[in-house]
Amino acid sequence: MDGTIKNKYIYLLAIIFIIVLLFITMRWNDYREKELVDVMDTGDIVEVFYRSLLFESNLSEFDRSISDSESIQELVDFFSQYRVKKVGLRNFSTKYPNEQFIFKFEYADNRITIDSLIEKDVVLLVNNQYKITNGPFDYKWIEDFIKRHE
After folding, report:
1. For range 44-69, the mean pLDDT
2. Does pLDDT of 13 surpass 70?
């Protein structure tokens, strides 16, 4: 009987070790540097909604959208040049209120992302905040892109 109790403790310790190892691996993966397009999950986007209003505006309506696949791919290609690293939960105060892009993606499977924001060196997605590691973000390109597609 003494051997069975000892074996149970060994199994219990092994299970605890595996759980801790999985937790550490998941946390490392969550906070490592990644491609912005991977974080945004840009694979099956069918429409991009955006607004031309500043982030701190009281209006939450998206007043424009892009749905043609070539334009969406052009935007995704632009996003693909940036790398981000998660810095924690969404705890944001703007440094560049005139250089923000606020958007929402609709996917082929009808998923819709929550309002997200890109500023010069910060990306807010869902409840997470990311730092752009190879920034600053080219806000002028976004402005030109929007003007071309209106």
Report:
1. 72
2. yes
